[in-house]
Amino acid sequence: MLFINGRILSKTETGLKGTAQFSDSMLIQDNKIVAVGSHDEVAKTLGSDVEVRDLNQRVLLPGFIDGHMHLLLLGQSLRKLDLSRCTSLDDIQFCIRQYAAENPDIPTILCKG
């Protein structure tokens, strides 16, 4: 089966500056991914009798990629005091003191940045 005209996730990098690379075609033969790349690249590996599916620019995540998210961690992260703009220990201490004064009912202050 040949998938064309899609956004097929073909490479990811992790970390804060992680990026994703997408290709537009993917060929599957005998239940295995045989080729991922541009339509011209994948067409070089085609057999004679291949079913073609147009993805209409939809995203396809190949099965060997564990596409999931940590919803709980995201929620916890959004509740943390963002210290990323602080440039010194004094800035950090000031921001935490100010946040504590504005939020006296919070028993524990969690920070990020």
From TrEMBL:
Matching InterPro entries: Amidohydro_3 (IPR013108), Metal-dep_hydrolase_composite (IPR011059)
Transmembrane domains' residue ranges: none
Record-given protein name: Amidohydrolase ytcJ-like
Database matches in Gene3D superfamilies: 3.10.310.70, Metal-dependent hydrolases, Urease, subunit C, domain 1
Alphabetized GO MF terms: hydrolase activity, acting on carbon-nitrogen (but not peptide) bonds
UniProt organism field: Fusarium beomiforme
Highest taxon, organism lineage: Eukaryota
Highest classification ranks of the organism: Eukaryota, Fungi, Dikarya, Ascomycota, Pezizomycotina
Domain Amidohydrolase: 51-104
